[in-house]
Write a structure and sequence with these properties.
This protein is of the alpha+beta class. It has helices spanning 13-32, 39-68, 77-81, 90-107, 112-137, 175-190, 205-215, 229-233, 261-275; strands at residues 3-6, 9-12, 146-149, 154-156, 165-170, 195-201, 222-225, 241-245, 251-256. The chain folds into two domains: 3-137, no CATH class; 146-275, Glutaredoxin (3-Layer(aba) Sandwich), CATH 3.40.30. The protein is elongated and about 75 Å long.
């Protein structure tokens, strides 16, 4: 399982683990602060430190991503604030989180023990889960089903194995899918060394053609998964999902949720680096 679907909402396993770590850390503060001389005060300060650390880490992880992909934002503040593209710098976030925790302990030395025990308990639970998830997700090799093209002729995905391959699963009724289409169209134009394939989910060719005409989009390699069998074969449960495969068919990266020019460019660079002999 690569993602969690709750009604119309979808969340990647990685982000679910982060939310789980936050909740466990908060619960740990409640449990271990009861051993302090002033339990209520210790709980308040330690839980504030946990939530503050996650907020600061989130902010600087996004800021680090923006700095690294600055040329793709073109000064668009709204695009920078739109975290739905999943663009974050893990290194920047972890450094900021660590510094904030250190600052909180310096201000309130009494919470040191509570935070250490809460952190240890959270790590004891989440690290094995993270390792288990990582081992279960990779390496994953690309299935090669035959899929109908928008024009009607069948296409086998093995036909695209001469280059690194990006596969996007989408539908016209899905708002983040609709938002990311222009970015995918630009990526097709700017990356001739990569195949970018789009597989529509459970809709008719007429619906897709009407959408493309309405949005004035020119997209190549548009395929139709009318029955949903192809998405199930790829383990896709949430739309949109974008998969990045090396030339030899190994999964390099899986992005659950919409992409932007910046997040797509970062993932493509990762794919190109992995595909270079």
């Amino acid at each position: 399982m690569h993602s969690i679907s709750i009604g119309p909402l979808g969340l990647s396993i990685e982000y679910a683990l982060i939310w789980g770590a936050l909740l466990l850390s908060w619960a740990g503060c409640y449990v271990f602060s009861r051993r302090a001389d002033s339990p209520v005060t210790c709980y308040q300060f330690s839980s504030n430190a946990v939530f503050g650390a996650f907020a600061v880490g989130f902010f600087f992880a996004r800021l680090g991503f923006i700095a690294g992909q600055w040329s793709y934002f073109h000064g668009d503040v709204m695009a920078m604030l739109d975290v739905r593209d999943g663009g974050f710098s893990v290194g920047s976030g972890l450094i900021a989180t660590g510094l904030y925790v250190s600052y909180s302990i310096h201000r309130h030395p009494a919470i040191r023990s509570t935070l250490m025990w809460a952190g240890a308990a959270t790590s004891a639970v989440m690290l094995p889960l993270y390792v288990a998830v990582s081992l279960s997700l990779r390496p994953e090799w690309m299935p090669v089903p035959t899929v109908d093209a928008l024009a009607g002729s069948p296409v086998t995905l093995s036909d695209f194995k001469d280059k690194p391959l990006v596969i996007n699963f989408w539908a016209t009724w899905c708002p983040p899918c609709r938002r990311e289409m222009p970015a995918l169209a630009r990526a097709q134009q700017h990356n001739p060394d990569i195949h970018i394939v789009l597989i529509n989910q459970s809709e008719s060719p007429a619906q897709v053609q009407a959408f493309l005409a309405e949005q004035e989009l020119a997209l190549n390699n548009m395929l139709m998964d009318v029955t949903g069998d192809v998405s199930r074969e790829f383990g896709v449960a949430v739309l949109p999902t974008t998969l990045f495969y090396s030339r030899d068919g190994k999964l390099i990266y899986r992005h659950v949720g919409g992409v932007s020019d910046a997040s797509l460019a970062k993932a493509i660079r990762m794919l190109q680096a992995e595909s270079t002999p």
